[in-house]
Amino acid sequence: MIGVTATAPRDLLAGVDVGGTSIAVLLADSQLVVRGRYAAPTRRDEPEQAGQQVAAAVHGACRAGGVDPARIAAVGVGVPGRVDSDAGTVSLALNLGWREVDLRDQLEALLGVDCFVANDVRAAARGLVERRVLGGVDDLVYVSVGTGISAGIVIDGHLVLGMHGMAGEIGHVVVRPGGARCICGLRGCLETVASGRGIAARAQEALDAGTASTLVDRRPVTARDVYNASEAGDELARSITEEAGRALGRVTYDLALTFDVERVCFGGGVSQAGSAFIDPIRRELDRLRGASPLAADLLPLDLVQLLPAGTEAGVWGALFLARKGRTGRSVREPDGKEVGGRSQPSPLAT
Ligand SMILES: [Zn+2]
C-alpha cells in the first residue's frame, strides 16, 4: 500500500512572518490560492527553540487548512532583524531576543524541505512588487513603521540589498541631532521621533514633566493612544504626531532624492492610525514642494500611500521568498536528483 505521504505532490509554499507579538503563516498553491492560515503568539527570548516554534506554526497552518505537511515544497521566513539570507542565519533580532540563530538549518532539519530566511521588511517589499499590490509601480520604497522603522527599496523591480543586506535601515537615520538616545547608541534617530516605541516614549516624557494632556491617565501610553488623542485635538499628542510626520516626510524626500522612486508605501502597526498617521507626512511634502522647485519636480502628488488594507505584506513576502528560492536554487539533474548550491545568491536578490 502506498501511503498518502509518499505520493503527495509538493505543490504548496509556506510563508512565515515572525513578528514581535505573533507568528503568522500562509500556505498557498502555485496559483497563489490560499490553502491554509495560522497565527500563534510569539515566544520571545527562546532562540534555541526558534526553529521548533516556526515549524510548529507551519504544522498549525497545515492542520487549519486540512493539508498534508508533505505537500509543502519550500518555506520562506521573514524575521525582523539582521539576517544573512545566504547563510540562513539571524544574527540579531532584538524584538525576538534572538542572536546568532541558525534558523534555516534548524528548520530544514525539522521540516525536511528547503527553507529561506530574510529580513521581514525586505521580503515584504519584494512581495508587494511580485503581487502587483501597487499596480505597475516598479520603483518603490516600502516603509514599515511599527515598534521600529525599516524599509525595503525596490528599483526597476529589483530589491536593493547592499553589502550586508541592510539597505533600507532608515530607522537609524539621524533626524534630530542631539535628540533622544536610540537603542542603536546614537541620538535623534528617526526611530526616536516616529516609531511606535519613540512616540510612546516622547509622550511619556512630556507627561512625566507635567505637560497637560488627555493622555495623563494612560499608563503605559502607546503610540495608538497618542494618534487617537491627536485626532481628538489633544495638543501634546498633536505636537508629537506632527513632528513624527515631519521627520517621516523629510526622510521620504531623502529617499526620493536618492532613488527617484515613484511611490513610498507605508505599512506596519503605527501606520494603521490611517489619516492621523499619513496626513502630517503629506503636509511636510507639500511644504517642501512649495519651497523648492526641485522637490516639486521630484515629489509626485501621489508619492506616499498607506498599504492597502488586508495586504498581509509580511506572510506574502515570505511566501514569495520561498517561491523565488525554490525556483532559483533547485536545479533538476537528468537523474532526477535535485542539486542546489548554498553559495548561490540570496533568493531575495533576483
Ligand atoms: Zn538609532
Strand order of the largest sheet: 3-2-1-4-8
Instruction: Please work out how many helical segments DSSP would assign.
Output: 11
How far do the termini sit from each other? 43 Å
Indicate the percent of residues in helices. Answer: 25-40%
- Arithmetic mean pLDDT: 91
Name the helix and strand elements from N-terminus to C-terminus, one letter apiece. HEEEHEEEEHEHEEEHHHHEHHEHEE
> What are the low-pLDDT stretches, counting only 5+ consecutive residues below 50?
329-344
Q: Indicate the structural class.
A: alpha/beta
Let me know the number of strands. 15
Radius of gyration of CA atoms, rounded to a whole number? 21 Å
Q: What compounds are bound to the protein?
A: zinc ion
Overall form: globular
Largest sheet composition: 5 strands, mixed
What multimeric state do the chains show? single chain
Strand content: 15-25%
Offer a concise description of the structure.
By secondary structure, this protein is of the alpha/beta class. The protein contains 11 helices and 15 strands. The chain binds zinc ion.
Provide keyphrases for this structure:
single chain; 350 residues; alpha/beta; 5-stranded mixed sheet; 15 strands; globular; binds zinc ion
